[in-house]
From TrEMBL:
InterPro entries with a match to the protein in the record: FAD-bd_8, FAD-bd_FR_type, Fe3_Rdtase_TM_dom, FNR_nucleotide-bd, MRET, OxRdtase_FAD/NAD-bd, Riboflavin_synthase-like_b-brl
Boundaries of every FAD-binding FR-type domain copy: 222-322
Species assigned in the record: Streptomyces shaanxiensis
Signal peptide: none
A Pfam family: Ferric_reduct
Cofactor: FAD
Protein name: Ferredoxin reductase family protein
């Protein structure tokens, strides 16, 4: 198999993740400064609560636009930061939006109530009835509160992903309502033509990023590449590999370690997208995913017919050789998390040590391929089997298997409990944080 080899970046190079993260912080800080400038330029109300309400409203609007940027799935950001981290930042930004807009509503309502004879509840009703755009803002806030509640961990665990995702789509309704409210009554928005142009630009960039990243780019790539199933190969009783072909796959910017959201266009599965990592490095001719039957979607892959059309969103993820900091590496896999690890081994330069943790030998998916790859590339391969306790990847065991582990990059993929345990072991061993690479999505199976 011919793969595109990517040498590690020189040790003195600024890490791609650092560049992207610093860029995002700089963009956010610059926009905070601009918002504050236009806020002060618009002048203050005589009521302190109204002043605080306007300020929290502006920051809520800015954070809402920033939140959209985080989930736009822009390739440049995704390859450098990773969907898991961007999604985590999106989550916490979302809660910040919720609290900022709640504060905005409370401060504004109590501020106007202070200068009128109405109590806060009746004051809010009066504002909604008499001031253009306020009713839309109340509806937007209600939607955001509902989304915040269903996104809390206690509720999220009880909802099917499809249900949660459908509710989450109403965020875009809230965005439109909030923007029209800002256009109608926003003091800072209407204070000058420069302020108006700025806010139109902020919302325009945010919404355009989502439109391009979530709709235009996936549609264009699928039209260009015309993905189809070319083979379905059982790897074991509950694991199957699916081979995907298409046009101009050498032009698809996919790398070992990344994943796609795969939608197989059959009458009973076209609506369901499943995230699976590539289990072989892209070679310009075909893509391969390998999945364990962990749910209805993955179990149905075994019966997928050759020739089935595929709609693939991606590639996504920062779990790639782009983030290497050292010439040598350790690849640690658990269970079916071996799929991106196997693909990375195929692409990586330099000496590698592969540690594959499974309960028993029969659970070692793609082990034969790992043996062949390790032999061809001069890598060490350790199959670690046995029960969860005692911990076979404790600090002492890792040190024994890889004595120079602190001088290597570590790529880690597996079930969350195993990953947490290994990250703890690496921390105990003193492996620098920037040398440890992982993504927390359970996307391999």
């Amino acid at each position: 198999m011919t793969t595109v080899q990517s040498p590690p970046a020189p040790p003195t190079a600024i890490r791609p993740r650092v560049v992207a993260r610093t860029g995002l912080y700089a963009v956010l800080a610059a926009n905070v400064a601009v918002v504050l400038y236009f806020f002060f330029a618009a002048g203050f109300a005589s009521n302190t609560l109204i002043v605080l309400g306007r300020l929290t409203g502006l920051f809520g609007a800015l954070l809402m636009a920033f939140q959209l940027l985080l989930v736009a799935r822009l390739p440049w950001l995704d390859r450098r930061i990773g969907m898991d981290r961007l999604t985590s930042w999106h989550r916490w930004t979302g809660f910040s939006v919720l609290w900022a807009l709640l504060a905005h509503a409370v401060f504004i309502t109590f501020g106007y109530a202070e200068s009128s004879s109405l109590d806060p509840v009746n004051q809010l009703i009066d504002l909604a009835e008499t001031v253009e755009g306020v009713l839309r803002a109340v509806v937007a806030l209600g939607i955001i509160i509902v989304i915040g509640v269903v996104s809390a961990r206690f509720a999220r665990r009880r909802l099917a992903y499809e249900t949660w995702h459908f509710i989450h789509l109403y965020t875009y309704v809230a965005v439109v309502l909030a923007f029209t409210h800002q256009v109608a009554v926003g003091t800072s928005f209407t204070s000058s033509s420069a302020a108006t142009a700025y806010w139109y630009a902020v919302w325009g960039v945010a919404l355009a990023s989502v439109f391009v990243g979530r709709l235009v780019l996936p549609l264009w790539r699928n039209w260009r590449h015309q993905f189809r199933v070319s083979a379905v190969v059982p790897e074991s009783d509950n694991v199957v590999s699916v081979y995907i072909t298409g046009r101009d796959l050498d032009k698809l910017p996919a790398r070992a370690g990344q994943f796609f959201l795969w939608r197989f266009l059959t009458k009973d599965r076209w609506w369901q997208a499943n995230p699976f990592s590539l289990s072989a490095a892209p070679d310009g001719n075909q893509l391969r995913l390998t999945a364990k039957a962990a749910g209805d979607g993955s179990a149905a892959l075994r019966h997928m017919k050759v020739g089935t059309r595929v709609f693939a969103e991606g590639p996504y993820g920062a779990f790639t050789a782009l983030h290497r900091t050292r010439p040598e590496a350790v690849l640690i896999a658990g269970g079916v998390g071996v799929t991106p690890i196997r693909a990375l081994l195929e692409e990586l330069h330099g000496h590698a040590v592969v540690i594959y943790r499974v309960a028993s030998d029969r659970d070692a998916v793609l082990y034969g391929e790992l043996v062949e790859l390790a032999h061809a590339k001069g890598a060490e391969l350790h199959l670690v089997t046995g029960p969860v306790t005692p911990d076979k990847l404790a600090p002492a065991e890792l040190q024994r298997l890889v004595p120079d582990i602190t001088d290597r990059d570590v790529f880690l993929c597996g079930p969350p409990p195993m990953m947490n345990a290994v990250i703890g072991s690496l921390r105990e061993l003193g492996v620098p944080k920037q040398q440890v690479h992982f993504e927390r999505f359970s996307l391999a199976g």
